[in-house]
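Co-fold these.
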Amino acid sequence: MSILEIENLTVTFHTKDKITRAVHNISLSVEEQDSIGIVGESGSGKSTLAMAILQLLPKRIARIEGEVILDGKHLFQCTDEQIRKIRWRDLAVVFQKSMNALSPVHKIGTQMSDIYRIHESKISKKKLKEKIISLLEMVNLPSRVYDLYPHELSGGMMQRVSIALSLMHNPKLLILDEATTALDVVTQGQILSEIKELEKELNLTRIMITHDMSVVASACKKVAVMYAGNILEFGYVKDVLVNPLHPYTQGLLKSIPTFKGEKKNIRGIAGALPDLSVPVQGCIFASRCEFATDICYQVKPTEELLSGNHRVACHLVGGMEHANVNHS
Amino acid sequence: MGSFIIRRSFTGILIIFVAIFLNFMLIQLAPGDPISILSGQDSPSPEMEEALREKYGLNDSVGVQFLTYLRTLAGGDLGESILSGRPVSEMIGERIGPTLMLTLTTAILALLIGTLLGIYCARRPGSKLDNLLSGLSYLFDSMPSFWLGMMFILLFASWLGIFPTSGMVDLRANHSGIAYYIDVLHHMFLPATTLTLLSIPYFFRITRSSVIQVMSEDFVTTLRATGMSEGRIFNKYVLKNSILPTITVFGITIAYMITGVAIIEIVFSWPGMGSFMLNAISRRDYPLLMGIYLVLSISVAVTMIVVDVLYAFIDPRIRYSK
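Predicted complex below.
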């Protein structure tokens, strides 16, 4: 059963002199106990997508179209009050800069208790403290963290605090927005394996937003590749990363060095993200794509569904000529 | 926290000592001679000048004069005014009350009004009221205090006649009890309003920008994502974070007011330290000047210690820094 259903989600930012389309017509469905990685370079709309699901975009400039259905509830039709009830109980998030994720002048224990009590007000002080400390211990933090201030912890510890905070009410869906990006690889590895452990215990469904392919490879079941507000390729990690079909995904994977196999040149993708305030007629990636043909500039490719729920939006896929290019 | 207060008080005492030394040296270096004023302008007799110098110890070396000063100071003796011959501490005692009353009243009023307006506008940035108040804050900030004071006297005292032009009490009325306090308030209204209007902009702008900045911080997004209500986020988390710069400005404003209130006091003939200090300067009344400076430095140092301790109390990051 799918826990989160995103249908034709479009997010545009209306500023003084231009309209920027940050997320364009995205549909995605997240099954229970899925772990989906959303990858893409900076500015590709990954975080905007997350913020749109969380309804945390600034209302004055952001226009959201489409549907987001979480556990049967149409989020965009909920009142503010209903949204507040859904937040953290059904839908929790871990943000990237966890050093700043909590108020610097309040103790961590106080803030966690305060947040806990939003959704569970009838708990005694003693029980609440026990609960918070058990949460801290769950993410391998000592109980003294309860009485510390955020600046007294290291980046990794604060990240654990953020994770403990997000798991406090056993949310149905957890969004990790670049949650391990700011950490060194060792800490990142530890935290990823801890998350995977907790996931088994708590029956979590998880969306991980990252630009790090290795995080997706080691911690996710499915992956969505985003570029300039569009999902270009989607499927199981074992399909997408082993047999990438979209030229953009191939480019992303070529930019990562590998330990195994022959030494290859690490290549980036030439060019930069297009200006999202200018509407594009054809494929959004065409201007940077080395295989682009005339049709790519004229017609927007539709999503091709291949075997194993592997979906690609590219004119080259479906035609046989591309399959050869990709393995060479 | 305790060790922080002790450490901070210790530096405060050190600062007061440095201030004593600097005051002493500055006045020694300043041109002018009290003896020539004391002995009269026209052809004073050298014998009289010599006798006066001897009386006030002005023949001794600067070092000896400083040590003498410190010794008597330790006994609570601020010396005698060269001009009036009365004890300095007694003279300051008479004058400090009105100044403290005026500065504390205005500082607290400006703090309350400025901060509240700042918070109000920060929650509605770009609104009509916000634009109006921001414009007014620049206007009052750039206005000379004596000019505003004089305009108030012209308007409310001379033309409308609803407030007295000068002084702290009506000497002819001879009020007592409640009537006396009402009379003082009546006299204080114009100088206090002038000073308050001129100090509000600091508090307004610092609070407004601080609240706006804190509202855009990541932890506010986190708290929103948890489903906490906007009211609670603001009252419990944003306020405590954004009040820090206001406290600093409050300390600086008090220090600035205690020393800078002189002009307003002169405009309104307020019987405080300000006009008193300017007189002492123009007449080279060394003991009185040093006494005034000492009191001012101690009040500034004490204010700063209080502000620092308060700051550390609110912000844990300050407490632990070495």
